[in-house]
Amino acid sequence: MRRLAFLLRPGWIALALVVVAFAYLCFTVLAPWQLGKHNRTSRENRQIEYSLNTDPVPLKTLLPQQDSAAPNAQWRRVTATGHYLPDVQVLARLRVIEGKPAFEVLAPFVVDDGPTVLVDRGYVRPEQGSHVPPIPRPPQEPVTLTARLRDSEAVAPGKDPLSQDGVEQVYSINTEQVAALTKVPLAGSYLQLTEDQPGGLGVIGVPHLDAGPFLSYGIQWISFGIVAPLGLGYFVYSEIRARRREKQPPAAAAQTPEPPQTVEAKLADRYGRRR
């Protein structure tokens, strides 16, 4: 036990606690965080790939009721016939499209015999910093749209809606938040217009099919969580070995054997003694 008493010193205790805490975070927070991002990205890539190779379907098959949402059909192309509410408009601010700042223009769309959905008409570029440019109104007559189904985004924490340049603006496309802001009930998913659609503006493309580095990052955090305790164990083992060597008594000096005498030396020694 005396040999292990050094492990109870404050420095070693602190080091052990740091290593244990780091390994715990690797397995419970950091690795699941990256692996979760990998799973979400892979799921979205599968949905995009499926939507690119599948014909559009009527919107009401996926959103049959006003409170419907279709998270498993994100990016799926749909068609809807109805009319815009042209006097209701909200902008999603601080968006980046093709590497440049943009506003995304949102408007409610009433589907014939179906729900009212939020439509992302596309984007416009800000003027003179962050000012809203003139935005064409959507058509008032009934139209048929082709769009991609999108999941409602999470509300940006600490970012409340604001009114600027006479237009209501939000920081995320969250259908509940926009519904509360406009007093118009909206379905849980929203639509993002494809190219050449009535009321469309700048077209927002689909993301590139790239899984990203999240899987490798997750594996790295798992590896760090394994290596850290092993490294601590190696340092403890090395310290114990070093202390054992310090406590061993010095080895007795080895006696050097005399070199064997030659025959001439033996004869000289014998006859010299007789004389």
Report the biggest beta sheet as strand number plus sense, adding barrel if it closes. 5 strands, mixed, barrel
* Low-pLDDT stretches: none
Counting DSSP E segments of at least 2 residues, the number of strands comes to 9
Number of helical regions: 4
List the strand order in the largest sheet: 2-4-5-9-6
Number of domains: 2
Query: What is the terminal-to-terminal distance?
Result: 69 Å
What percent of the residues sit in helical stretches (DSSP H or I)? 25-40%
General shape: elongated
Mean pLDDT across all residues, rounded? Answer: 83
What is Rg?
38 Å
Strand content: 15-25%
Task: Give the H and E element order.
Answer: HEEEEEEEEHEHH
The structure class reads alpha/beta
Keywords: Cell membrane, Membrane, Transmembrane, Transmembrane helix
Transmembrane segments: 12-33, 214-237
Subcellular location: Cell membrane; Membrane
Region (Disordered): 246-275
Task: Detail the topology: elements first, then pairings.
Layout: H1 10-52, E1 57-58, E2 77-84, E3 90-97, E4 100-111, E5 116-124, E6 143-150, E7 162-164, E8 167-170, H2 175-182, E9 190-193, H3 214-247, H4 263-274
Parallel strand pairs: 1-2, 3-8, 5-9
Antiparallel strand pairs: 2-4, 2-6, 3-4, 4-5, 6-9, 7-8
Helix pairs in contact: 1-3
Protein name: SURF1-like protein
Subcellular location: Cell membrane; Membrane
InterPro entries: Surf1/Shy1, Surf1/Surf4
